[in-house]
Amino acid sequence: MDLTKQKGQKNTMRVVTFKKDKSGNRIGIIHGDKIADLRATFEKLLAKEKGIPAESAKDNARKQIPDSMIDLINRGDNGITCIKQAYEFLNRSDEKGLLCNATAKLNKWASVQL
C-alpha cells in the first residue's frame, strides 16, 4: 500500500512521527510502504549530493531537522524545503538502508503538498 498518495492528491507527502525499536520518537517521511528517518535522509543528501564531509553533514542535519514535529513545522518554509529535498533525494537514490517498515509505531502524521 502506497501511503504517499491520497485520493485526488497526486503529489502529497506524509511526514510522520514514528518510533523504531526502542529508540525515541523520530520524524520520518513515508516513502511507498516504508518510513525514512528524515534527519538521516537529509544527512545522506548533504554528504552525497552537496559534498559536505560526513561529520559536518551530521551536525548540519541536526541543526536543520529538529527532534519534534512541532519544531519542524515552526521552521516554516525552511522546514518544508528540507522535507522536500529529503523526499526528492529518496526518489532518485538507492539508499534503501534509510527505509524501515511502516509497521514501526506511527504516532502522528501530517501531509505536505508538493
Question: What features would you describe in this structure?
Answer:
The chain has 114 residues and is of the alpha+beta class. It has a single domain, classed as SH3 type barrels. Helices cover 39% and strands 27% of the residues. It contains four helices and five strands. The protein has a five-stranded antiparallel beta sheet. A hairpin with a 5-residue loop joins strand 1 and strand 2. Helix 1 packs across helix 2 and helix 1 crosses helix 4. The longest helix is centred in the last third of the chain and has 16 residues. The chain is globular, with a radius of gyration of 13 Å.
Instruction: Return Rg in Å.
Output: 13 Å
- Major beta sheet summary: 5 strands, antiparallel
CATH top level? Mainly Beta
Span of the ends, CA to CA: 20 Å
Let me know the average pLDDT: 81
CATH architecture: Roll
Residue windows where pLDDT falls under 50 for at least 5 positions: 1-7
Query: Residue share in helices?
Result: 25-40%
What structural class results from the helix and strand content? alpha+beta
Total domains: 1
Using the alpha-carbon principal axes, give the shape. globular
Order of H and E elements: EEEHHHHEE
Question: Helix segment count?
Answer: 4
CATH topology-level name: SH3 type barrels
Count the E strands: 5
Strand content: 25-35%
Question: Multimeric state of these chains?
Answer: single chain
Please list the strands of the largest sheet in the order they lie side by side: 4-3-2-1-5
